[in-house]
Design a protein that fits this description.
Layout lengths: L4 H11 L1 H7 L2 H18 L1 H4 L40 H37 L1 H15 L3 H15 L2 H6 L1 H28 L3 H8 L4 H37 L11 H10 L7 H28 L5
Helix pairs in contact: 2-13, 3-5, 3-13, 5-6, 5-9, 5-11, 5-12, 6-9, 7-9, 9-11, 10-11, 11-12, 11-13, 12-13
């Protein structure tokens, strides 16, 4: 095993075009640091958070609506204050960020898998397959994520009890966001696949007798992943913001399970009574997270888009 392999790989990444564009943009560097810190804090929430918002035995209603520690009447044990249930706001933000990132990452992953599969089918085979898939895409793109979530939410409420519905609320949002994102991936992959299938290397693979599924998986798929990565990165912010919007409207994560959207919804109810910290800090966390993701998506687009070079 060569001990210099890892440093050389890191140096190659730093000296590459992507690494140069990343290092030459202070905004992108700051966005990357903010994103890594926020994702790391969310993943390590059980270790970093001083309190567990899911542990009802540790929650005391006498500690509800406490201001941040540096304000008059604040408690040093609660850095950013508490919410109306007496939960430590700093801890709930950490756990809420983890929930929001989980919803965004899973929904985008499902959308990318579905979009890649259907986009490759439409672009490679064309004809009737292409027509059917693209008409489904056109129909799907006419429905916004909120309408899809309302439909799925209504269907699940009619078949499930309230407790069962609350347990499946996260999966309802994931499904709604994935259904709203996959058409963009499918259309992009279809366009790229139609270009790639006319290349010489694809024709050579067809001549030597390789099947269509092997050609799509081994030859076309690696060459269409660039635009897909850009769409996935940008839509990660869209999915996180969509989860917050749906939870704010009462269609998402239940109030007992913290997410950034539910924290903002709870804080909005108390903004006129003076407890503004309940809205400001979750809202600022959501804004920083989405902004950092969007800036990284712009950087990735500049790196992978040949027209920007």
């Amino acid at each position: 095993m060569n001990p210099e392999r890892s440093p050389n790989l890191i140096m190659r990444l730093l000296d590459s075009d992507a690494g140069y564009k990343f290092r030459s943009s202070p905004v992108t560097v700051v966005a990357g640091l903010v994103f890594v810190l926020m994702i790391g804090a969310a993943l390590l929430a059980p270790v970093i958070a001083p309190f567990d918002p899911f542990d009802k035995g540790s929650i005391d209603l006498m500690n509800s609506l406490l201001p941040p520690a540096w304000n008059s009447g604040g408690d040093p044990a609660f850095l950013l204050g508490t919410d109306n249930q007496g939960r430590d706001l700093f801890s709930t933000i950490l756990y809420g960020t983890r929930t929001s990132v989980f919803v965004g990452a899973v929904s985008v992953s499902l959308a990318v898998v579905a979009g890649l599969f259907l986009g490759l089918l439409a672009g490679y085979f064309g004809g009737l397959v292409d027509a059917i898939i693209m008409r489904i895409v056109d129909i799907q793109m006419t429905f916004p994520a909120i309408m899809v979530a309302l439909l799925i939410d209504g269907v699940t409420r009619s078949f499930l009890s309230r407790d069962q519905h609350d347990e499946l609320a996260v999966f309802v949002i994931i499904l709604a966001m994935a259904l709203s994102i996959w058409p963009q991936v499918a259309r992009t992959v279809r366009a790229s696949a139609m270009v790639e299938k006319s290349r010489e290397y694809v024709m050579a693979a067809q001549v030597i007798g390789r099947g269509p599924w092997l050609i799509m998986a081994r030859h076309i798929l690696p060459n269409v992943m660039g635009p897909v990565l850009v769409i996935a990165t940008i839509n990660l912010g869209v999915a996180i913001l969509g989860e917050a919007t749906l939870s704010f409207l009462g269609l998402g994560i239940p109030a007992g399970e913290p997410s950034l959207g539910t924290l903002i919804r709870i804080g909005n109810d108390f903004i006129f009574s003076g407890e503004r910290w309940m809205l400001i800090y979750p809202g600022l966390t959501l804004a920083l997270l989405v902004l950092s993701v969007n800036l990284l998506g712009d950087w990735l687009r500049d790196v992978l888009d040949p027209k920007s070079r």
